């Protein structure tokens, strides 16, 4: 075999240029659509080119809504394309390789959003192309995430590609393997895939291409020399380009379906245990525009997940009609707001219709629908329902704004009084206890005046503030800009979490202000500290300071018997500061080194921890990655890393740890000699020479959670689920409490709950558990319990046990696995 490969390599060096490329395979096609780029008349152009080049095959990554327009504006061309598309055999000429409704990067949003990208996209495409078969996932942009194998397989995909050779502006996958690999996801699912070959180098003098973009002789030679007998290149052209076949007649054009299924060597595919860190990313982290987009998407995503679950509960318990049309509208607008172009070219578009404007419009619609389902516009009055849409029982403080009475008395539906206090802003705070996936009812009335309970918070003689709750003792130093100089976790055997010897302060703001040619820190000037709220339920500390001459306000909230410490940061920018590494005098797109790559100079929140031999883990859609990075920093396009902070990052020494949670997707910082933190701000020249500025105050919500053990033993995933879906207040129409379901293993989560006719669909995610069989208990009866694929195909019947009007189902799910359960003809007695 080696002799044959060497002979092939020698023979291939004889040919050169175009004659060389004629002998090898190429994946061609089109990328874009209605929102990205798809000019008028372009369907006709594609049809004409297919007719003119009968040996040409194409792979489509076109936004599904594009065909709504083409059907109306180009009916003849649309009909002709449908006829060509009808042949979906392996030998057919057209394959649809990415049906994602909004062509999302996928790693920037939740796992459930990833599923809906495919489900809504496939549904919409089949309205236009009923014969569509989805065999291979491929993307022109780096739209990849580690959990894709199990999701793709469950939708019926057979193959995948991890190449994006001509559009690497936002990143690329790590080079690995040969002709075909077995792409293994975190749950163990395996999918044959064509990777970015280990020999597929980044193209010199380019910051957007690999050598596979045009089947150059160098690319083919390196592949053959590595034993890749049938190398393949790729370029999904931007819709709007008028090249016809990308390499003209100098390639063997194929669909991915036929290439992987019938050409490539799948018998000797190496196993690739793909990590999220194999997706290498280089977005403009810290840019205010990305911050705003990420916050809007996160808020809409979280609220819609809660609203859909409550709609299912309401449909079952109160027999409300299932709001399918409204939910479809909300999901579709959310999925469009996750479009990769929102992240890579946010400023593109006409005034009033940039991606920034589109995201605002789309997320506003999602929030409007979600609020209507959650009855957020209706007054709660003196009786209110506290809703819990997670799979865990919760006991938390909830706040009712605008309380106008005197001393409150709050009682549960069992008549027992719970702790309640009126806060300085006239809001009411009380302790609610709610079962999983359900609600409890509380009543508010006025009672006799009582002596206010004392707190343990005080200012020390040296000017520092000491804050104490059931779980923590925290010390804040105004003289050092309000940093936290001590955080003792009582529940962790009085463990000191702050590295008090570290040069940097805990909760310090620090970055390089290049217009001032200086590093600036919140510790440079003293801060004003006051107790904004101080009652037996919670304490809110307000810190007012300066960073580089710009006023900032931090709010730190500690609640009794609560692990999570909430933080709010607002920076009121004065003018337009330059923050980050100083930009080059002249921007050139092909320069490998760019200021926006380098997070080490950007404004950061830093959290130095007293934890030896730190290990960091971070979540991703339906995955958690234990980082292999020695640090998160890079300054050039050829050395980018996955430093993405989705919902949380966690640092542990194995005995204790601390999780950092954020309200938007951004980048985190960490290294062997660098504390945990996250990127707050970057301003300056970035992609395509665009000046990324600040146009309003920066306002960020984050939190920290000290815990025992590593992230899984410490319950970090559940903490994040509660952070994303807080207890919600709704008006109560009766006194009854209700819980729809409960999971025996508290490490299992329920990311989605929805109705399909008379059936209830339950999505279950094993976020941190083992592979053992566990029980799921539903408060109702059903005729059948079925395990089904994401494409609706039935897999297995699940055994059911009925007890006192409840249904108990037992099943095993691998760690990081997702399963969809269909309960047929469910009936709830309430």
Summarize the structure in words:
By secondary structure, this protein is α+β, with helices and mostly antiparallel strands. Helices cover 20% and strands 33% of the residues. The protein has a 9-stranded antiparallel β-sheet, with helices on one face. It is globular and about 85 Å long. Mean pLDDT is 94; it is low at 1-22. It comes from Chitinophaga pinensis. GO terms for molecular function: alpha-mannosidase activity; carbohydrate binding; metal ion binding.
Rough outline = globular
Total strand segments: 54
Tally of DSSP helical segments? 14
Tell me the β content. 25-35%
> Helix coverage percent of residues?
10-25%
Estimated structural class: alpha+beta
Count of all domains = 4
Compute the CA-based radius of gyration: 28 Å
Distance between the termini: 70 Å
Return the CATH topology of the largest domain: 7-stranded beta/alpha barrel
Low-confidence stretches: 1-22
Spatially, the strands of the biggest sheet line up as 29-30-31-32-43-38-37-34-35
CATH class categorisation of the largest domain: Alpha Beta
What's the CATH architecture name of the largest domain?
Alpha-Beta Barrel
**Major sheet summary line:** 9 strands, antiparallel
On the 0-100 scale, what is the average pLDDT?
Answer: 94
């Amino acid at each position: 075999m080696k002799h044959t490969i060497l002979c092939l390599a020698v023979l291939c060096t004889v040919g050169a240029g175009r004659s060389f490329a004629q002998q090898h395979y190429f994946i061609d096609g089109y990328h874009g659509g209605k929102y990205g780029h798809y000019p008028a008349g372009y369907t006709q152009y594609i049809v004409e080119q297919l007719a003119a080049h009968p040996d040409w095959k194409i792979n489509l990554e076109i936004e599904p809504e594009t065909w709504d327009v083409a059907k109306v504006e180009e009916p003849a061309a649309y009909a002709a394309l449908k006829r060509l598309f009808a042949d979906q055999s392996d030998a057919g000429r057209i394959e649809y390789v990415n049906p994602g409704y909004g062509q999302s990067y996928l790693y920037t949003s939740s796992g459930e959003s990833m599923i809906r990208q495919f489900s809504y996209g496939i549904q919409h495409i089949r309205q236009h192309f009923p014969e569509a078969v989805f065999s291979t996932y491929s993307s022109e942009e780096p739209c990849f995430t580690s959990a894709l194998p199990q999701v793709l397989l469950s939708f019926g995909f057979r193959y995948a590609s991890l190449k994006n050779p001509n559009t690497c502006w936002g990143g690329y996958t790590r080079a690995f393997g040969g002709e075909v690999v077995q792409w293994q996801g975190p749950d163990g699912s395996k999918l044959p895939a064509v990777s970015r070959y280990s020999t597929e180098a980044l193209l010199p003098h380019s910051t957007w291409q690999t050598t596979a973009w045009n089947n150059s002789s160098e690319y083919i030679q390196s592949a053959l020399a590595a034993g890749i007998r049938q190398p393949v290149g790729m370029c999904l052209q931007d819709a709007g380009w008028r090249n016809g076949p990308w390499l003209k007649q100098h390639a063997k054009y194929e669909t991915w379906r036929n290439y992987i299924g019938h050409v490539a060597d799948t018998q000797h595919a190496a196993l690739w245990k793909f990590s999220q860190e194999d997706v290498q990313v280089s977005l403009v982290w810290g840019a205010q525009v990305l911050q705003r987009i990420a916050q809007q998407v996160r808020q809409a995503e979280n609220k819609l997940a809660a609203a859909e679950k409550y709609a299912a509960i309401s449909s079952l318990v109160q027999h409300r009609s299932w709001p399918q049309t409204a939910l479809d509208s909300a999901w579709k607008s959310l999925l469009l707001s996750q479009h990769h172009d929102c992240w890579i070219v946010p400023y593109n578009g006409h005034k009033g219709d940039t991606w920034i404007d589109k995201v605002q419009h789309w997320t506003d619609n999602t929030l409007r629908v979600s609020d209507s389902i959650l009855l957020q516009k209706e007054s709660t009055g003196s009786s209110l329902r506290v809703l819990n849409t997670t799979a865990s029982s919760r006991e938390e403080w909830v706040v009712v704004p605008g309380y106008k009475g005197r001393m409150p008395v709050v009682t549960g539906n069992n008549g027992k009084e719970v702790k309640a206090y009126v806060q300085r802003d006239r809001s009411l705070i009380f302790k609610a206890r709610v079962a999983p996936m359900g609600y409890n009812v509380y009543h508010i009335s006025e009672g006799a005046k009582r002596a206010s309970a004392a707190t343990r918070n005080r200012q020390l003689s040296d000017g520092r503030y000491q804050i104490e709750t059931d779980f923590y003792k925290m010390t804040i130093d105004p003289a050092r800009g309000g940093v936290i100089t001590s955080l003792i976790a009582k529940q962790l055997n009085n463990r000191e979490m702050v590295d008090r010897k570290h040069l940097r302060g805990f909760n310090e703001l620090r970055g390089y202000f290049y217009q001032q040619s200086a590093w600036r820190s919140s510790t440079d000037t003293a801060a004003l500290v006051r107790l904004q709220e101080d009652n037996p339920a919670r304490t809110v500390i307000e810190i007012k300071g300066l960073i580089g001459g710009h006023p900032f306000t931090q709010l730190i909230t500690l609640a009794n018997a609560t692990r999570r410490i909430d933080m709010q940061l607002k920076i009121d920018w004065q003018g337009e500061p330059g923050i980050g590494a100083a930009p080059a005098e002249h921007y050139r797109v092909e320069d490998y080194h760019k200021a926006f790559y380098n997070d080490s100079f950007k404004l950061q929140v830093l959290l130095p921890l007293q934890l030896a031999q730190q290990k960091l883990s971070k979540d991703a859609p339906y995955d958690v990655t234990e980082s292999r990075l020695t640090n998160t920093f890079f300054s050039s396009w050829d050395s980018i890393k996955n430093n993405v902070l989705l919902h949380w990052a966690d640092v542990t020494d194995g005995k204790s740890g601390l999780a950092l949670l954020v309200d938007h997707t951004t980048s985190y910082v960490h290294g062997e000699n660098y504390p945990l933190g996250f990127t707050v701000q970057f301003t300056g020249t970035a992609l395509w020479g665009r000046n990324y500025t600040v146009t309003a105050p920066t306002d960020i919500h984050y939190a920290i959670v000290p815990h025992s053990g590593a992230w899984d033993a410490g319950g970090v995933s559940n903490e994040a689920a509660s952070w994303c879906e807080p207890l919600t207040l709704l008006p109560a129409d009766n006194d009854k409490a209700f819980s729809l379901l409960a999971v025996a293993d508290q490490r299992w989560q329920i990311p989605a709950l929805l109705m399909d006719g008379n059936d209830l669909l339950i999505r279950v995610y094993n976020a941190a558990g083992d592979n053992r069989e566990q029980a799921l208990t539903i408060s109702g009866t059903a005729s059948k319990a079925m395990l089904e694929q994401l494409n609706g195909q039935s897999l297995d019947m699940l055994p059911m046990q009925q007890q006192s009007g409840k249904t108990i189902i037992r099943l095993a799910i691998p760690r990081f696995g997702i399963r969809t359960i269909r309960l047929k003809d469910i009936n709830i007695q309430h």
